[in-house]
Amino acid sequence: MELSQLSVTYDRENDRILTRFNTQEGHELRVWLTRRLLSRAHQPLLDAMVNQDARQSHLLSDDAASKRVVSAFRQSQSLEAADFKTPYNTQAKAYPLGTAPLLVTHLHITAKAQGNLAIRFEEQLGTPPVSRSFQVALGSDMLHSFMHLLQAALKAADWGFDFDDQPAFLGDDPLLHTPGTGYLN
C-alpha cells in the first residue's frame, strides 16, 4: 500500500488522536490513537525512527548520541522537503475498513530490510476478540513527517507527555507551529 497523504489531529470531543492515511489508489484508512496506547508506544516509535535512520546512514557506531545526531539531520532534511500546506484530501474513493476509525489496541513496529518501518495498527474488541488491522510501510521521510505530526497532536492533546526528555531534534521548530495544519502530502 503506497501512501500519498496522512493526517494526524487531536479530536477534543473524543479525547483521541485521529490518524488518517490516503493511499495512491484513493483509499482512506482511519485509526484512533488513545492516550493509553501512546503512553506505551510513543518511545518505541521514536527509538525505531532513530534506529532506522542509523541503519540507512550505515552508521558504524552503536552510540545513542551518534544515532540521535544522524536522526536529527535526517529529520531536518525530511521536514524541509515535506508539503504541510496542501490540505488533506477528504474525498476518498473507498474506505476498505469502513468509515469508523479502528480503535487501535495493539501497535506492531517492525524494521524492514528495504529500509522501511512497518507499523501495523490492530484493533481487538469484543468477547471473543474480533481483530481488524492494516499495515503501512513508512520510509524515512514519511516516518519523520508522521512523528512530527504525532508530536504536534500530542502537544495539542495536553496529555502530560514530557517532551523535555525528548532528543532536542524532536523539540519545537517552525514547522510545528504552522496554524491549521495536521496533514502531510
What number of domains? 1
- Overall mean pLDDT stands at 83
Number of strands: 8
Strand content: 25-35%
Structural class: alpha+beta
Number of helices: 3
Helix content: 25-40%
Low-confidence stretches: 167-181
Strand order of the largest sheet: 4-3-2-1-8
Encode the helix/strand succession as letters.
EEEHHEEEEHE
| Morphology | globular
C-alpha termini separation: 16 Å
Radius of gyration: 16 Å
For the largest beta-sheet, the strand count, sense and barrel status come to: 5 strands, mixed
In words, what does this structure look like?
It is built from three helices and eight strands, in the order βββααββββαβ. The chain has helices at 35-56, 64-81, 140-157; strands at 3-11, 16-23, 28-33, 102-103, 106-111, 117-125, 130-138, 183-184. The protein has one domain. With 185 residues, the protein is of the alpha+beta class. Helices cover 31% and strands 28% of the residues. A five-stranded mixed sheet has the order 4-3-2-1-8. A three-stranded antiparallel sheet has the order 5-6-7. Helix 2 crosses helix 3 (140-157).
Write a short abstract of this structure.
This protein has 185 residues and is an alpha+beta fold. It has helices at 35-56, 64-81, 140-157, and strands at residues 3-11, 16-23, 28-33, 102-103, 106-111, 117-125, 130-138, 183-184.
